[in-house]
Amino acid sequence: MIRLQNITKSYPTGSIALDDVTFSVDKGEFVFLVGPSGSGKTTLFRLITRDLLPSSGSIHIGQWDIVNLNKKHIPHLRKSIGVIFQDLKLLKDRTIHENILLPLEVNKADKEAALQRVEQILETVGIAEHKDKFPIQLSGGELQRAAIARALAFSPEIILADEPTGNLDTTTSWEIVKLLQDINKAGTTIIMATHNTDIVNSLSKKDN
Amino acid sequence: MKTIKTSWKQIRRTPYQALTAVFIMMLTFLSISVFSFLVFGSSVVIKYFESKPQVTAFFKDEAKQSDIDQLSSNLKQTGKISKIRYVSKQEALQIYKEQNKNDPLLLDLVTADILPASLEISTEKIEDLGTVSDALKSSPYVSEVVYQKDIVSTLSKWTTAIRLIGTTVIVTLALVSIFIMMMVIGFKVSQKRDEIEIMRLLSATNWYIRTPFMLEGIFYGGIGTFLGWIVASAGLLYATPYLESFLKGIPLLPVSPIFLLGLLLAELIIAIGLGIIASSLAVLRYLK
């Protein structure tokens, strides 16, 4: 499903974020991307979503050839990949409900269907009671759930979770991982970047 | 609908910036309207003078009809004359009455005796006007020769100058408008850069991001144009009675409402163009 072949990414400053990386992920897998800060995990996610282009190598996601993808198809690609950003990227002046609705609005989804979908996702991630609150009114774990909810808006085939437990206490971290596992069980492929080896070891899933 | 709401919210949240953008657009289109009136008016005036006899010779009271006929006949024989028309004292009075029909005071004191008879002459070639004019001036029966070529060429020079100044002022103001709108919209884009970045990552197309800003530019352009046009048209309507007495006989005023509406339409099209250019440039660097 996701295939990276000899990916190298260097920045104009000369720093090399990724050096000849090759791996593949099959449909429905739950994969951890483990490494210290600055090891290129976020860069890898940005390459997969075509926010960056690799210096060399090829990336294929399903039928998409990411490196040679026409710019006008980028929005379509991003619709099929849900991203949970490390810094969450929730809009502070919008409620949780509005934040989750945003990707559907952006893609001009039918209003009624979009509202129903948001309600459904809010129930799934367990923050329905917080839907009218603004991000500043929520705890770290609740914000992380909101970010997961937004990534689920389009029922994507793939979810990229960038350090979703990074700033959370152990209990909340496990709750988030459990939530991601549930999403994975429903058929969504998940790649989770983390530097928390305890979680990885405990789950002993596939480690790259 | 959602896009329009977003644009309107952006405008409402920064009323002073919106006023600045509207005001500069109003100034630009007020200038465009005023110079359009001047250029259109002066071209009508030139056409009017061009359609009039090019040389008019007024006769002294002692000139007899036979003297005038002789002079007319001599001129015709030169082969340079395309049209010649004799206007008697009575006809002159009729013309005077027609021109001043709304001013009885001016009509009371004038009789045919005090108005001169005249010959209105047009030549085949404009360069023959000088010769004809000289021939008329040398006649002992002619008191005055009015030579329209001077008026037409002076008016043409004025029109050229108006066009040149108008174009310079309009281009300068249009550029200033674009820069100010770019600054106003660019400031808003910069304030929303995080939101734009998030939208891009959430699969928004460039058009989805760009459209509210473009609508904002079109709003500033449209409102500014309408206000500028209203001010210029109201000014023209207010000045019409004064101008009518000044431009007596020239079929220019009152200006046709169709012309004014046509001007508004043309200005709106230009304004929408300016709004789109300014907003597109402002948002461009965030959409690369």
Please describe the structure with a list of short key phrases separated by commas or semicolons.
heterodimer, A: 208 residues, alpha/beta, 5-stranded parallel sheet, 4-stranded antiparallel sheet, 7 helices, globular, B: 288 residues, alpha+beta, Alpha-Beta Plaits, 4 strands
What is the radius of gyration of chain A computed over CA atoms, rounded to a whole number of angstroms?
17 Å
Gyration radius from CA atoms of chain B, angstroms: 29 Å
Q: Order of strands side by side in the largest beta sheet of chain A? A: 6-7-8-3-9
How would the global form of chain B be characterised? Answer: elongated
Overall pLDDT score of chain A: 88
What is the share of helical residues of chain A?
A: 25-40%
The CA-CA distance between the termini of chain B, in Å, is 26 Å
* Helix coverage percent of chain B: over 70%
Biggest β-sheet of chain B, characterized?
4 strands, antiparallel
Q: What structural class do the secondary elements of chain B suggest?
A: alpha+beta
Chains forming the largest contact = A-B, 20 and 12 residues
Oligomer: heterodimer
Brief characterization of the structure:
The complex is a heterodimer of chains A (208) and B (288). Chain A has 208 residues and is an alpha/beta fold.
Account of the 3D structure:
The complex is a heterodimer of chains A (208) and B (288). Chain A has 7 helices and 9 strands; from the N terminus they run E-E-E-H-E-E-H-E-H-H-H-E-H-E-H-E. By secondary structure, chain A is of the alpha/beta class. Chain A has a 5-stranded parallel sheet with strand order 6-7-8-3-9, sandwiched between helices. Chain A is globular, with a radius of gyration of 17 Å. With 288 residues, chain B is of the alpha+beta class. Chain B is 73% helix and 8% strand. Chain B is built from 10 helices and 4 strands. A 4-stranded antiparallel sheet of chain B has the order 2-3-1-4. At the A-B interface, helix 2 and helix 3 of A face helix 8 of B.
